[in-house]
Amino acid sequence: MSGEKRKKAVAISYNPDLYDAPTVTAKGAGAVAERILEKAREHGVPVQEDQSLVEVLAAIDLNTQIPPELYQVVAEILAMVYKMEKKSEGST
Fold first, then answer.
1. Do 7 and 30 touch, CB atoms closer than 8 A?
2. Domains present along the chain, CATH in parentheses
3. Along the 92 residues of the chain, how does pLDDT read in single tens digits?
C-alpha cells in the first residue's frame, strides 16, 4: 500500500424550511468521492477543498445536521457558494 491518501468527499445541503442547520447528504472515499465530485460538477455545484473539514464532516452520519461547532466554518463556505452563484447569474 502506498503512502498516498485516498481522496475523500462530503456533500452538504441546507434547506432552512426543513432543517435548522446544513445536513450531510453524501460522503465517501476513493471512487465514491470521485463520483460525488463528478455529480457536483455536472450540476454546477461549487466545490470547496478543505481536507480537515472533510475529515470532520465525514464523521457525521448521513442525513444528520452538522453540530453547532461547525456552523461558522460551514456558513463561510455557504457564503462563498452564494457569491459564486450570484457572479455566474450576472455573467449570463
1. yes
2. 8-90 (3.40.1690.10)
3. 444 578 999 999 989 999 999 999 999 999 999 999 999 999 988 888 888 999 999 999 999 999 999 999 888 888 887 787 777 777 65
pLDDT recorded at residue 40: 93
Strand (E) positions, the chain?
8-13, 23-29
Asked if residue 27 lies in contact with residue 9, where contact means CB atoms within 8 angstroms, the answer is yes
C-alpha cell at 77: 463556505
- State how far the alpha carbon of 36 is from the alpha carbons of 2, 26, 41, 86, 90, in Å: 24, 7, 9, 23, 27
Phi, psi of 26 (to 5 degrees): -160, 150
Rounded Cα distance between 27 and 32, Å, is 8
Q: Which of 8, 1, 6 is nearest to 52 (CA)?
A: 8
The type of residue at 68 is P
